[in-house]
Amino acid sequence: MEALELLRNGFAVAIEPQNLLFAFIGCALGTAVGVLPGIGSAAAIAILLPVTFNLAPTPAIIMLAAIFYGTNYGGTITSVLMNMPGEAASVVTCMDGYEMAKRGRAGAALAIAAIGSFIGGTVATIGLVLSAELLTRSALQVGAPEYFALLVLGMALLTGLASKSFLKSVMMAVLGLLLATVGMDPTAGSPRFTFGRLELLDGLSFVPVVMGLFGIGEILINLEVQGRSVFQKRLGSLLLTRDDIRQSVGPITRGTLVGFVLGLIPGATSVIASFLSYSLETKVSRTPERFGKGAIEGVAAPETANNSFVNANFIPLFALGIPGTASVAMIMGGMMANGLVPGPFLYRDHADFVWAVIASMYIGNVILLILNLPLVGLWVKLLDVPYSILFAAILGFTTLGAYAVSNSPFDIFVMLVFGFLGYAFKKLEFPIAPLVLTLILGPLMERNLRKSLEMGGGDFTILFDRPLSLAVLLIAAALALLPLLRPLWGRVEVLRSGQETS
Amino acid sequence: MRNPLRRSLGLVAAVVIAACGGAAPAGSAPSASVTASAAPKAAWPAPGKTISLIVPYDAGGAGDVGARLLAPYLEKELGTMVEVVNKPGAGSQIGVTELSRAKPDGYTIGFTHLPATIAVYLDPERQAAFNRASLQPIAMYVVDPNAIAVKGNSPYKALKDLVDAAKANPGKVTLGDSGILSDGHITTLLLQEQTGAKFAVVHGAGGAKGIADLLGGHVQAQNVNLSGSNIDLAKSGEIRLLGIFDDSTNPNYPGVTTATSQGYKISVATSRAISAPAGTPKDVVTILSNAIKRAMAAPEFTAKAASSGLSLRYMDPTQLEAYWTDLETRVKPLIDLAKK
């Protein structure tokens, strides 16, 4: 096969010492950026972009790509150990990852996250080898109406995030939607709920809100338990039990698929990928009650999905020059500055470069696996730092991270406000995850609905005229109605069995 | 107990230092040679004082990459550091507001994209805290003309085909742009005004996402800019440009005529001008503008700009002033029209 031959040549280039070194630097930096709360891959790539203008293009892009996919490995670590997401995409991992750590199974959680990430990342890269163009063309069938339908489906899956109280979950979801309306109207451009504040014109920044709700909220809660050991320091075995593996096969497979498909669609983010794959698991699981109490599926699925997502994100870039996320847009900038124009001629005109970068993704994922598994023990040692120092350090990093999103002191204020809110929510046992999910999905839903209506001349039927959009909406409706119909169905069953016995 | 921790922190530090170390020679080498040769013997800028270059858009966008490409060459000319600072948000309103409020000493300059900046301060709903008088133009950097593109297999071959289709089915032919009062939307409004055609205007995210909508068949036509990866998409036949809204044709798009030559006298571009806060001393503005001019002429820079698809077009403060005024007069009547 021609592709495999080209890939073999790519490997020959990728293992040249210089390229290998830059893949390693990228992976290590990515992991570090992932561990540091608030600082995301986009910021790291932006800082390093000018450096790459002075490097040869192949090692430069290998490094930037490695930072991007490496970040999702590192983001897991603080989520599991401290209930503080290092990366927005790891928010959902907190729910079961931290619970696993509390039960002394941090080792298993981090191990399955690394393994899932590896599988997701490697499998998604196959798309770049086999048929980047074909995949991109199919993904382009997803227009605004289909995207809107997909987001409705995401909302329907939301019930899977329900905590003890379904009502509380719905309240938090609605609060998230309300907060999502702050900012400029996406179509007409008029300000909404900004109270004349310039900083609110773009809505509430996602990272400071999440850092506040999770990071600051968690610190405040922990301050209540003085003198006692807050975090579970027992790492537990890194080795997965047979049960762990059996339970993770399905989530990793589905996580890879969800991440891969969303990675192809411009405008989706890895946060959406991880949330949807988690929600999907709670729906397909035979034991949904285990979620939120340390189910390994709740770590395996989202961690696989976000890595599958980032690697699949390169497919539309390489095939048609369409960057799906901010980080990939920056990598595109780095390519353009070196005369490597992503698009229809990239594979033809710059075969050496493309195949070396693809091969480096396989190598990078191996490096990350090696980097992450043995380092797990080291990361856990972080928890030996006295809390007075550890909390101060986390506060420092989250503040820095919140500020760095758009170099705005206002975002620090947002983070603090949401920190106190997060504390209150935790005390009152209001689940935070539904709020975070609708805060991400809300603006996307609005934008795509209104864009659909513009496409259809203001007519809602555009949502039902298109087969793909109709199909997804029907699935969403079925999912939303199922819990309501179940009691009815039960009654029918009872009646029927009653008739049979009589 | 503590050792492994220290080691792990050390590792992170080492990595960060390695990265910074990689950056240092690239940045510092030129500036060392600078002070001796290129920089004029002027009191401004004070050596060692950093000049902030505000980019009111996200890191990684086309505007940002262009700025980061220019910064090192500008450093060479000015003999001091030039730091790109991203202040994204609200369609550049946040960054430009900050620029207009900065101390007018020349150490804070920034990008004011046109017509985006004009649309922000002219639209009363935006409640902008700045206006034309708050900004002092320094230099034009990039002028990227607009065009309307269709998918390669579209039946429309020229602007007239698209206009005729929109006339035959008013409000049914979809034409995308990157948002209300964006350069693309202004093109659409002018085209509607001149021809009486009525399009179904789709305000998308523009740029690459607009291209994705076009290639996916979700819009029938899309307002695009000439630079960047669109060149290859046109060359490969994925997209076809119906007409260029500029005074002249473009060598990257052989066979595509200007809108004017097709009978539509419309000229729209997205232009990346560099401005300072109003009140910046005149001689400082001159020093900055000349430095930008020389940086833009450096052969090494022009080669990189060409491969990035940047269409460089320098203008001095007076020329930019005139360009700005002309554009403002043309955009003003469209503000109310856009909201309809």
Structure description:
The complex is a heterodimer of chains A (502) and B (340). Chain A has 502 residues and is mostly helical. Helices cover 74% and strands 1% of the residues of chain A. Chain A contains 22 helices and two strands. Chain A has helices at residues 2-14, 17-35, 41-52, 57-82, 91-102, 106-130, 132-139, 144-157, 166-180, 206-223, 242-264, 270-284, 297-312, 314-320, 326-337, 346-349, 351-381, 387-406, 409-427, 433-455, 462-465, 467-501; strands spanning 183-184, 191-192. Chain A has a two-stranded antiparallel ribbon with strand order 1-2. In chain A, a hairpin with a 6-residue loop joins strand 1 (183-184) and strand 2 (191-192). Chain B has 340 residues and is an alpha/beta fold. The longest helix of chain B is centred in the N-terminal third of the chain and has 33 residues, at 2-34. At the A-B interface, helix 2, helix 3, strand 1, helix 15 and helix 17 of A face helix 1, helix 2, helix 3, strand 6 and helix 7 of B.
Instruction: Count every helix of chain A, treating DSSP H or I runs of 4 or more residues as helices.
Output: 22
Low-confidence stretches of chain B: 1-41
- Rg measurement of chain B, Å: 22 Å
User: Which regions of chain A are unreliable across 5 or more consecutive residues at pLDDT < 50?
Assistant: none
Q: Identify the overall geometry of chain A.
A: globular
Alpha-carbon distance between the two ends of chain A: 67 Å
Instruction: Report the mean per-residue pLDDT of chain B as an integer.
Output: 85
Approximately how much beta-strand content do the residues of chain B carry? Answer: 15-25%
Largest sheet of chain A: 2 strands, antiparallel
